[in-house]
Structure formats: structure tokens, C-alpha cells
Design a protein that fits this description.
With 323 residues, the chain is an alpha/beta fold. It contains 11 helices and 13 strands.
Length: 323
């Protein structure tokens, strides 16, 4: 074989194809056309002189040569990504590029405050700030479309993402303020009001449903709601009740006079929110953003929550730093 000139794009497309098993899936993820993805794969195999993928199988699988090559390509691309991140991020003052994703729970106060801080502290940086749900944040981190993200931890593991635990966010009852029904009766199915659920595709909905099944609570519902603000508006109007968290509640401050929180009259459970970083992201930048986020969470979320509802102190709090 002649001197090898392997394109970085060929290697990246090969790695994505090996993980996703489909040219169509890679095209969807990367924004490339199907013909371009196929061209990159053919060019790589032609340059190497070996078959890396079983193209006729669905999903596509790796050949023995492909398995060996993927192992080394993964390591090489991680090193390249780390080098690229250290050059483009570097120190806060010299950072040139940062891609940050925050869950929608922080879009009303903490997210904007963090963006203002970063814009002032990173004057040379091209800064991309995304607001998504947790599933999208995790997917973007795994695809290296984000450097840092804040998300609700999943149940299926984090892969190679670095986890900086941030908040224990307990599940609570959110009820119309004017209701005369006891909190226990809502979970016992003795209320005339329907349970309002988050849509099934959201991670918070899956966590609530899993816990209710464990407790053998079968509560009918008529509504599945994607928007947290809509959820709180419906509770405020007396149209239903929900199992939610303090973080979700404090996003919807305009409804606080019409919605009240109560501890769950069952075994307590919570979701856990973390700052997550790719392995390539420089530790100095991650540590600074993590410290800033924790400070904002404490001042803008926890302190007002404790003042309004002191009973939340035991269950709603920052998690210990283990990095």
C-alpha cells in the first residue's frame, strides 16, 4: 500500500457508522448526505486496502479488521479531540470556543445569569448556549456536539462522560392552592382531579412512572404535558395535580400563589442533576463553570426555596463535590 493519507472526516464517519450501524443514521446525526457518508467509508476502505464493515448486513457490522481499526481510531480521535479542546478552550480568558447545554429547568433565571457571566469572563470565545431537555443534552454530549452540559442523570449510565453531581431534586406533590383534599387522598385516587403527567418521552416522566409502579400505585390520567409552564398553569387553574420537583416549580414563579407543594406521603424519591463534561474538555474550564453553577443554584434556587418552604431543606440540596 502507498503512503496513507487518511482524512479525519473519514475516520469520524467510520466511527459513527460502527456505533450506529447505518449509513442513514450517520447521515441524520451528522447532517451529511447518504451519498457523502458512503463515499467517506469507501474512500477509507480503498485507502487501507481492507474491508472494515459488512455493508450488506442490517445493521452493518464490523469485520475482524474493522474491530481492530475501531479500537485504535477511538483512541486516536479522543486524543485529537482533547488537543483541539485544549487549544480552543484553554483557560477561561483565552478560550476560543465553548458549547454549553442546560436543561430547560434553568432557562428562567440561572441559565441567563450563567450566560452573562461566561460572556464577560470569556471575551475571545465563540459561545454556543443550548437549552434542551435532558435526553437531548446527553445525546449531544455523547456525539461531541457539546463540551459541557447540565442534565438530569439517566438510568442507563453515562459512558465516558465526566460527572460532577450538583442537585438532589426530590419529587413532591403540586396541588391547587385552594384544594380541600388531603395530599394523601390524591395518591390514593380519592380526588376528583386528574393526575397531570409529563409526556412519556421525558426522563422525568419515566422516573415518576417507575416509582409509582414500584409502589403499586395505578393512577389514571387524562393529560400528558410537555411544557412545565403549561403543567403549572393547569394546576393553578384547578384542572389537575402532579408529581413534580421543586426545581420545576420554581421555574413557574407566576403561579406560586395558586400552586402549593407538599411532601410525598409515600417513600421519598428524587432525581439527580449533574454537570457533565466530555473527557476532552479542559478541567480548568469545567471546574470554573461547575463552581459558578453551584453558586447560582444556591443563591437563586435553594435559598428562596428554603425561605418559602423550610421543610425542603432536608431533601432539596447541593450534592457533595467528589472531584
Amino acid at each position: 500500500m502507498q503512503r496513507s493519507d487518511l482524512s479525519l472526516k473519514w475516520l469520524e464517519v467510520f466511527r459513527e457508522t460502527a456505533h450506529l450501524g447505518s449509513v442513514q443514521a450517520v447521515a441524520n446525526e451528522t447532517g451529511l448526505s447518504i451519498s457523502t457518508v458512503s463515499h467517506h467509508l469507501r474512500s477509507l476502505e480503498d485507502q487501507l486496502g481492507v474491508s472494515l464493515l459488512n455493508h450488506k448486513k442490517r445493521p452493518m457490522t464490523l469485520t475482524p479488521s474493522g474491530l481492530v481499526f475501531l479500537k485504535n481510531v477511538d483512541q486516536a480521535l479522543k486524543l485529537i479531540g482533547k488537543a483541539r479542546a485544549e487549544v480552543t478552550l484553554g483557560s477561561m480568558a483565552d478560550a476560543q470556543n465553548l458549547r454549553l447545554g442546560l436543561i430547560e429547568d434553568f432557562d428562567s433565571d440561572i441559565g441567563p445569569s450563567l450566560a452573562v457571566f461566561l460572556a464577560a469572563g470569556m471575551p475571545r470565545c465563540d459561545f454556543a448556549h443550548h437549552t434542551r431537555d435532558s435526553r437531548d443534552i446527553l445525546a449531544m454530549l455523547r456525539l461531541k456536539k457539546l463540551d459541557i452540559g447540565v442534565a438530569n442523570l439517566p438510568n442507563d449510565g453515562l459512558g465516558d462522560l465526566i460527572d460532577f453531581p450538583m442537585i438532589r431534586d426530590p419529587f413532591v406533590l403540586a396541588l391547587p392552592a385552594h384544594t380541600s383534599t388531603d395530599p394523601e387522598d390524591f395518591l390514593a385516587g380519592k380526588s376528583d382531579l386528574p393526575l397531570l403527567r409529563y409526556v412519556k418521552t421525558q426522563q422525568i416522566s419515566q422516573q415518576v412512572d417507575t416509582q409509582l409502579r414500584r409502589l403499586k400505585l395505578d393512577l389514571p390520567s387524562r393529560f400528558e404535558i410537555e411544557s412545565n409552564q403549561t403543567m403549572m398553569a393547569m394546576i393553578a387553574s384547578g384542572a389537575g395535580w402532579s408529581v413534580t420537583t421543586p426545581t420545576c416549580y420554581f421555574r413557574a414563579r407566576r403561579f406560586h400563589g395558586q400552586v402549593t407543594l407538599h411532601p410525598l406521603p409515600i417513600k421519598s424519591f428524587a432525581r439527580y442533576i449533574s454537570l457533565l463534561a466530555t473527557p476532552e474538555c479542559p478541567g480548568q474550564v469545567t471546574a470554573m463553570i461547575n463552581a459558578t453553577m453551584r453558586d447560582l443554584v444556591e443563591k437563586r434556587l435553594l435559598d428562596p426555596a428554603y425561605e418559602a418552604m423550610p421543610w425542603l431543606k432536608e431533601s432539596f440540596h447541593l450534592l457533595a463535590v467528589d472531584h
